[in-house]
């Protein structure tokens, strides 16, 4: 794959300029310098992309599932073959450590493999009417053109998590990546062409005019599925817009994951899990551990060990050797984290550990562990989205559950305990779509990812992931 070939909007298998010639700039978070000028799609480009996608629908949806699966499988292989280039691109525009970027490429590729395997198992059903006289034929059809808006924290995986099931189901797609990280999604689309995907089935429109492009898609009757990953605030706006055309939506929104350490937990395992759940991608992860509830008998020990582990992670430009913590995605992200930490300290939190911050340019935020964080600190209720671990203690489990569930979010939670039955009981009581039990890494393309409450609607991955792109058609057959 030639990364330098990435040049503009990717529509109909071709690189194009925006209809009005507008461009925007992509920056390297490690240097704060511009790295690429990219075409900025507007409403006209959004409409063109939907037309192109719709024109490819009949052909792609009629392509036998086995053949669709083979394209997806080839895309899986192509992503692995191009892993170093793709990971470099992710680090360049997102900032994350190269080792995290490589892990992301592998995770992202896995969606192609998983949904290649699902494409041939869509199936249909046949039944007899209970009262006799006729039969039920229940078919599964691809929904139609699917439109996606994705965030910057996983530039490859958030694209493939949506693209792969849509293509497996027979739906063509249009995708708008985040303005901070448009290059990786463009590279993925070009790789799909190399893997044999017909032109027009996967179209990617970078832009800094998000509302214009997404708004155009949600007003277009040809768009039959909309899937968004991003903040709850933006999700709410898009959900309202989707209501006008009654567009079927999937929403993966914000989280506020509690990380619970019971008194009987293996503390070494809990610290390792905490690092996985907190520090992957610099903490810019929607399922990142956001608040640590540690039993008061082990809190001092856990906090000290976590502080030691977090502050010894090597911070620096993501491409440098040994770096485990790169810069945040942009200057606004650093300001936001800083404001949340300042608020917590003002309300009585103590800085238990703080890692170094490199000299020179780059949007860096040092790994930070806060102890004695009061429940009313803002960061206990908002996504921190950075390398900050606020620790508080608990005594009684009922009180813990009440505090952990006292949030409008419900994406993920983590529980550490040597008593599996107790951990599973606790997992049942936490109001979230996902729980890690003695595990800090929970994402798996073969499992349903998603949240409850204001963390989202629907699930991606797993068996559920492809369902979002299928419509059910029931045919009543007169057959005595
Ligand atoms: P974050 O705060 O993490 O950047 P956002 O929800 O703002 O989360 O961004 C996620 C995605 O939503 C990005 O692709 C962004 O461009 C897009 N986006 C932001 N605002 C809007 C909007 N009003 N309409 C459509 N898309 C939007």
TrEMBL record:
InterPro entries: Ald_DH/histidinol_DH, Ald_DH_C, Ald_DH_CS_GLU, Ald_DH_N, Aldehyde_DH_dom, Aldehyde_DH_Superfamily. The active site is at residue 252. GO terms for molecular function: succinate-semialdehyde dehydrogenase (NAD+) activity. It comes from the Bacteria. Keywords: Oxidoreductase. One of its GO terms (biological process) is gamma-aminobutyric acid catabolic process. Residues 15-475 form the Aldehyde dehydrogenase domain. Belongs to the aldehyde dehydrogenase family. This is NAD-dependent succinate-semialdehyde dehydrogenase.
């Amino acid at each position: 794959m030639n990364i330098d070939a990435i040049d503009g909007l990717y529509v109909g298998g071709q690189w194009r300029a925006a209809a009005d010639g507008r461009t925007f700039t992509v920056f390297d978070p490690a240097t704060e310098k511009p790295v690429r000028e990219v075409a900025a799609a507007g409403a006209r480009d959004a409409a063109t992309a939907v037309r192109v996608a719709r024109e490819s629908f009949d052909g792609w949806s009629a392509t036998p599932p086995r053949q669709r699966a083979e394209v997806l499988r080839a895309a899986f292989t192509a992503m692995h073959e191009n892993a170093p280039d793709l990971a470099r691109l992710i680090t360049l525009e997102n900032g994350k450590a190269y080792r995290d970027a490589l892990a992301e490429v592998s995770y992202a590729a896995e969606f192609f493999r998983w949904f290649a395997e699902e494409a041939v198992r869509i199936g249909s059903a046949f039944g007899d009417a209970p009262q006799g006289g006729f039969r039920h034929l229940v078919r599964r059809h691809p929904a139609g053109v699917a439109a996606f808006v994705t965030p910057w924290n996983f530039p490859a995986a958030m694209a493939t998590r949506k693209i792969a099931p849509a293509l497996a189901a027979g739906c063509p797609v249009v995708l708008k990546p985040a303005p901070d990280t448009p290059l990786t999604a463009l590279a993925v689309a070009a790789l799909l062409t190399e893997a044999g995907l017909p032109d027009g089935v996967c179209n990617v429109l970078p832009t800094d005019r998000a509302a214009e492009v997404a708004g155009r898609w949600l007003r277009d009757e040809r768009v039959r599925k909309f899937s968004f990953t991003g903040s709850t605030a933006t999700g709410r706006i898009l959900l309202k817009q989707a209501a006008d055309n009654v567009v079927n939506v999937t929403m993966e929104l914000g989280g506020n994951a509690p990380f619970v350490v019971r008194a009987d937990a293996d503390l070494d395992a809990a610290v390792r899990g905490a690092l996985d759940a907190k520090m992957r991608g610099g903490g810019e992860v929607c399922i990142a551990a956001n608040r640590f509830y540690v039993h008061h008998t082990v809190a001092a020990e856990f906090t000290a060990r976590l502080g030691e582990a977090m502050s010894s992670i090597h911070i620096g430009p993501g491409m440098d050797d040994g770096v485990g913590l790169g810069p945040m995605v942009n200057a606004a992200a650093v300001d936001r984290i800083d404001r949340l930490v300042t608020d917590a300290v003002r309300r009585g939190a103590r800085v238990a550990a703080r890692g170094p911050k490199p000299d020179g340019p780059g949007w860096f935020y040092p790994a930070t562990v806060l102890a004695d964080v009061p429940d009313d600190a803002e960061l206990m209720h908002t996504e921190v989205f950075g390398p900050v671990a606020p620790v508080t203690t608990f005594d009684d489990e009922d009180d813990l559950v009440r505090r952990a569930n006292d949030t409008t979010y419900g994406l993920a939670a983590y529980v550490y305990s040597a008593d599996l039955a107790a951990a599973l009981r606790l997992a049942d009581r936490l109001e979230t779509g996902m729980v890690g039990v003695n595990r800090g890494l929970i994402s798996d393309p073969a499992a349903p990812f998603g949240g409850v409450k204001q963390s989202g609607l629907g699930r991606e991955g797993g068996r559920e992931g492809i369902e979002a792109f299928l419509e059910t058609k029931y045919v009543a057959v007169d057959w005595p």
